[in-house]
Amino acid sequence: MNVLETRDLVKSYRGRTVVNKVNLTVRSGEITGLLGPNGAGKTTTFYMMVGLIKPDSGQVLFDNKDITDLPMYLRARLGITYLPQEPSVFRKLTVSENIMAILETLKLSESARKERLKEL
Q1: HSE value, Cβ hemisphere, 13 Å, CA-based, for 75
Q2: Which CATH number fits domain 3-78: 1.10.357.10, 3.40.1190.10, 1.10.150.130, 3.40.50.300?
Q3: Sequence ranges of the domains in the chain
Q4: Nearest to residue 7, comparing CAs of 94, 66, 47, 52?
Q5: Is the dihedral of CA 55, 60, 66, 70 positive or negative?
Q6: Are 19 and 11 in contact (CB under 8 A)?
């Protein structure tokens, strides 16, 4: 059974701690909700779990393996995915164009970006 877990996740922005030592365990097939008021760190915690942002400290584990530094695309290969509410980041672009827009933020050559796009 797959288990996604956080241990003591911490994230701060401009000196303000928005996530403070969050511990969470989600087992395969479970439905888990994060409840709290606006600004409580729910979205930030979720983003750290899926790899959209890096925690300042703490760990994200999948089946007891540390994936804290694993990029989002490698987490997706493990079955950890994120589907935003919007149908696409840039609505008028194709799926490939959306992915390339994100890949352009990485220090990769054009050929490396195209290769990465093919992999995804």
Answers
A1: 21
A2: 3.40.50.300
A3: 3-78, 84-120
A4: 66
A5: negative
A6: yes
- The pLDDT tens digits of the residues spanning 8-27 come to 999 999 999 999 999 999 99
More confidently predicted of 104 and 49 = 49
Q: Is the pLDDT of residue 64 over 60?
A: yes
For 60, residues 6+ apart whose C-beta sits below 8 A from its C-beta are 4, 5, 6, 9, 48, 49, 51, 66, 67, 68
Quote the CA–CA distance of 84 and 102 in Å, as a whole number.
15
pTM for the model stands at 0.69
Gap between the Cα atoms of 55 and 22, Å rounded: 11
